[in-house]
Amino acid sequence: MSKARQLRDRMAEQGLVHVMAAHSPLSAILAEEAGFDGLWASGFELSALYGLADMSLISMTQHLDMLRAIAGRSSLPIVADIDTGYGNAINTIHAIGEYERAGASAVVIEDKTFPKVSSLAPGGRQELLRMEEFQGKIEAAVNTRRDPDFLVIARTEALIAGLGEEEALKRASAYAEAGADMILIHSKKKDPSEIESFSRAWNGSIPLTIVPNAYPELSAPRIRALSNVRMVIYGNYGIRASVTAMQDAFRRIVRDGGVQNVHADIVSVDEIFRLQGTAAIKSQESRFLR
Ligand code: SPV
Ligand code: MG
């Protein structure tokens, strides 16, 4: 059974799957150990890892390399954030082949123009593609996938662009007609009202995915009450948690003039050895090194 099938089955069984952002194999290992259902190969997180803005500056090759490395160290299904599909429908066809081969179980493609600007960037330029052109990208993606369970998730940025619920609903219906498996509806409003209202108004022809980055109070019980939502993506929590931890430790080391205090408050080197799979290598050494 493919991981894409597993993800679909889990959505059907649980009603809601929890997908954590991963920007590296190590963050993917930690997400799997914590109990998430899937991984989000986030463009925002990978851009931040490179110290860059999430504005189509990271190449498809860089994203694919990281996705392959993540797939090699985690058994969870991966939802790949492929932004605008790297160009037009022809670029999208190429991208779908590459991402499926690299080990993704799903892609999210958004209806912005290339190059995109991060949805949450204050005052960010948010230009949408013509709806018909984006339908072409969705049809191309659906037509290209080899595993029929591979999920094509169409993300509309109509609310992000300030075009309102009616436009968002119109676009979501058009993308469902084009063959999308799910709609990702995103909002940068500081409360979940836009998302709750959209989800109530949605015709339910295909399920919804949400990314509660700007409105964190939308907890799992409240999401479950929105009957159309089947996937929640925790979109930037991996990189933010890492930055919090590193800022704290690095500042303390400078302030304290050494690592004597921080040492006991961070994980041991043995814990890193465990995450690196060192025990398995030890047993391989004793078996095969002669
Ligand atoms: C990402 O994590 O790259 C996303 C989610 O696309 S957001 O940054 O909120 O747009
Ligand atoms: Mg993104």
Assign an overall shape: globular
**Strand and helix order:** HEHEHHEHEHEHEHEHEHHH
What number of domains?
2
How far from one another are the termini?
A: 38 Å
Give the averaged pLDDT, no decimals.
97
Indicate the proportion of strand residues. 5-15%
Quickly name the level 1 CATH class of the largest domain. Alpha Beta
Q: What small molecules does the structure contain?
A: sulfopyruvate, magnesium ion
Description of the structure:
The chain has 290 residues and is of the alpha/beta class. It has two domains: 3-236, Phosphoenolpyruvate-binding domains (TIM Barrel, Alpha-Beta Barrel), CATH 3.20.20.60; 243-288, no CATH class. The protein contains twelve helices and eight strands. The chain has helices at residues 3-14, 25-34, 43-49, 60-73, 89-102, 131-144, 164-177, 193-201, 220-225, 237-256, 269-275, 278-288, and strands at residues 17-22, 38-41, 78-81, 106-110, 151-156, 182-185, 208-210, 229-234. The two termini are 38 Å apart. The mean pLDDT is 97. Sulfopyruvate binds at residues 21, 42-45, 54, 81, 118-120, 211, 213, 235-236.
Short description:
The chain is α/β, with parallel strands linked by helices and 290 residues long.
Any key phrases for this structure?
290 residues; alpha/beta; TIM Barrel; 2 domains; binds sulfopyruvate; binds magnesium ion
Question: Would you spell out the secondary-structure blueprint of this structure?
Answer:
Elements: H1 3-14, E1 17-22, H2 25-34, E2 38-41, H3 43-49, H4 60-73, E3 78-81, H5 89-102, E4 106-110, H6 131-144, E5 151-156, H7 164-177, E6 182-185, H8 193-201, E7 208-210, H9 220-225, E8 229-234, H10 237-256, H11 269-275, H12 278-288
Parallel strand pairs: 1-2, 1-8, 2-3, 3-4, 4-5, 5-6, 6-7, 7-8
Helix pairs in contact: 2-4, 4-5, 5-6, 6-7
Bound molecules: sulfopyruvate and magnesium ion (MG).
The site of sulfopyruvate has 14 residues, from α3.
